[in-house]
Amino acid sequence: MKKHSEPFWWTLFGAGGAVSALFLPILIFLTGIAFPLGWIEVPSYDLLQKWISIWPARILVFVIVSLSLFHWAHRFRFTLYEGLQLQNYHKIIAIFCYGSAIAVSVYSFYVLI
Amino acid sequence: MDSKKYKPQMGIFWWTDRWSSIKFILRELTSVAVAVYSIIFLFYVSSILQGKKTFEEFSESLKSPAFIALHCFILLCLVFHSITWFNLAPQAMVIKLGEKKVPGIVVALMNYAGWFFISLAILWLVTNLLGT
Predict the structure, then answer these.
(1) In chain B, which residues have their Cβ closer than 8 Å to the Cβ of A98?
(2) Which residues of chain B, if any, have pLDDT below 50?
(3) What's the domain count of chain A?
(4) A52 to chain B: which residues are within 8 Å by CB?
(5) Does the structure's ipTM exceed the value 0.85?
(6) Is B57 inside any structural domain?
(7) Which structural domain, as residue segments, surrounds residue B97?
(8) pLDDT at B6
């Protein structure tokens, strides 16, 4: 990874860290715990469908998913370097991390927009 | 010893010696929880877009105990991520009001307030607006 691209990845990491910290806990609480266990009633399919057909809602979902992935890519890359002492493989690790974040982001763009 | 040639030999479990480094690695690993859940969330939304049948099947599979347990574990990691993130926010975000620097604790509290407000807004939206 060239030195001058670092601020770019760091910005995505920072934005993703903030977005995921603000949005993901409540979303996982609803979709993963409260809805399946019946603590909170799942809104009817028609309403969910109506809601997600509004394009700003889909853009918001895309932004949350994509930035969260870039947050992971940057942080996980350095966890592998430092945690597992894999500095020698820095190029392949960077390609793997940012590459998968880009691939899933493109996929989510295709699905949502 | 030739200092130029000295390279510290660190094993891959160097961080298990101290609590602070264990906490550091755990904090870094919360990013895995962030990635895993953002993909599950993408599947959740795309199941709505694919039609009623797909959405109902996906919702049904989320009721399995394994999925509930996984989601509880990811939620714990995500809350740890949020807390550590907001606590570090004052170091990354230096806000100035005129000449004076806004104290770090105020910046952190603003972040926590934002977290609280967004969570409450989504909860309110789901229980009041979408449920009727």
Answers:
(1) none
(2) 1
(3) 1
(4) 45, 48-49
(5) yes
(6) yes
(7) 93-132
(8) 67
